[in-house]
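ESCALATION

Customer reports they have been waiting on this structure for their group meeting. Please prioritize. Original submission:
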Amino acid sequence: KSLAKHPIAAMRFLAPTLCAVLALDDGEVTKEGHNTKQVGPSKHYKELEYETLKKFAYSDKDAVIVFYGDTCKFCQEIHPQQEKAASKILKKSENVRFGRIDLWREGEAKLYNKFPEFQNGGIPKAYFVKSSDHTVYQIPHGDIGWGDKGAKNLYKWIKENTAFPDDFKSKKEKRTKSKEAVEEL
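Update from on-call: job pushed to the front of the queue and completed.
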């Protein structure tokens, strides 16, 4: 009865279950109804737990944090694009770090109680914490790694929102800026 009176609360309560049901891959399901595939290890994303999330997110570097479920079909689909984007970004900047947290392992209720700033939406989802003022942004769902342009979209979004825009400038742009600074002296 109380969920019927509060439709937003009902959606937050039911969304993880619905996502879990929709995320099952029909060809890879155990008799218990579990997807047997996994997102797997990451080359660029540090695996986080609730105890390490705050220190990771709120530091002197920008942080990208992906919330996923290891057996979530959609999380598995976007993982390669997220890795590709992270690789490209890390070649440009040492000021952006990447982390991820398995919500199905850690538990969503625990996360939302401790970190309400990360509670919007189901999984997969990604947040960006800007180091300059520790503002938390939810990366738009279309920019977290979907499709052939997923890596490009995630890279572009981070480049446009980072606290370190100079890291993403071309060598030519950096030379021009250096030249202008010298001329000002």
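Sent to customer with the following note: The radius of gyration is 19 Å.
Escalation resolved.
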